[in-house]
C-alpha cells in the first residue's frame, strides 16, 4: 500500500514539474506510461505512421495531458489513455475518410444516364507491346524438354501418367518442372 501511495505522490510531483516547464519530468512521466503507449500503437494501424510518429504524438499528448490534468478528477493514467486513444481514433477516421473521398465524388449510373453523360471508351488492346503469341513462342523456345512436356500436361494434351511412364521419372520431378514452367510464364508475361 505504501508503494502505491509513493507512486501516486511521485506521479503528482512529475505532473506539477511538467506544468512548471521541466523537460526531464516530462520524459520520466512518458517513460512511466510507455507500456500504455505501446498497447495503443499495436492496437491501431495507420499506413503512413511508423513507431517514431506514434511516439512523438504520444509524447506531445502526454505533455498536453499533464498541463490540462486537474488533480482529484480521476487518475492521470485513465486521462492520458483516453486522450491517446481518442487521438488514434481521430487519425484512423481521417485516413478512412481520405479513402472514401473517391466514393463521395462518384455518381450513380442512373444519374449519369439522366444527365446525358456517356461512359468512357475503354481501350481493349492488350497492354503489352509484343503480341502474346510471339511472347509464348519465345517462352516455349527457352523451355527444357521436361518443362515442355509439363506444359503439355498442364494444357491437358498429354496425360501425366504417359509422361511419367515414357520418361521413367518420379511424379516429384514433373511437379518441379511445372513449378519452373509457372515461374517462367509469370516472369515473361507479367
From TrEMBL:
Q: Which residues form the RNA polymerase sigma-70 region domain?
A: 29-95
User: GO terms for biological process?
Assistant: DNA-templated transcription initiation
Q: Which Pfam families does the record match to this protein?
A: Sigma70_r2 (PF04542)
Q: What Gene3D superfamilies does the annotation carry? A: 1.10.1740.10
Q: Which domain of life is it from?
A: Bacteria
* Listed GO MF terms: DNA-binding transcription factor activity
Name of the protein described by the UniProt record:
RNA polymerase sporulation-specific sigma factor
Amino acid at each position: 500500500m505504501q508503494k502505491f501511495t509513493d507512486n501516486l505522490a511521485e506521479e503528482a510531483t512529475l505532473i506539477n514539474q511538467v506544468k512548471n516547464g521541466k523537460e526531464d519530468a516530462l520524459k520520466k512521466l512518458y517513460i512511466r506510461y510507455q507500456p500504455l503507449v505501446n498497447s495503443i500503437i499495436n492496437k491501431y494501424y495507420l499506413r503512413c505512421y511508423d513507431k517514431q510518429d506514434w511516439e512523438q504524438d504520444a509524447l506531445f499528448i502526454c505533455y498536453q495531458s499533464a498541463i490540462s490534468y486537474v488533480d482529484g478528477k480521476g487518475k492521470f493514467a485513465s486521462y492520458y489513455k483516453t486522450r491517446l486513444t481518442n487521438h488514434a481514433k481521430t487519425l484512423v477516421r481521417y485516413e478512412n475518410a481520405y479513402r472514401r473521398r473517391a466514393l463521395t465524388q462518384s455518381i450513380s449510373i442512373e444519374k449519369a444516364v439522366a444527365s446525358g453523360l456517356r461512359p468512357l471508351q475503354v481501350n481493349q488492346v492488350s497492354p503489352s507491346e509484343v503480341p502474346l503469341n510471339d511472347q509464348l513462342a519465345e517462352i516455349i523456345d527457352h523451355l527444357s524438354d521436361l518443362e515442355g512436356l509439363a506444359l503439355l500436361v498442364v494444357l491437358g494434351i498429354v496425360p501425366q501418367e504417359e509422361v511419367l511412364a515414357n520418361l521413367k521419372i518420379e511424379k516429384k520431378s514433373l511437379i518441379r518442372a511445372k513449378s519452373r514452367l509457372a515461374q517462367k510464364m509469370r516472369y515473361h508475361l507479367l
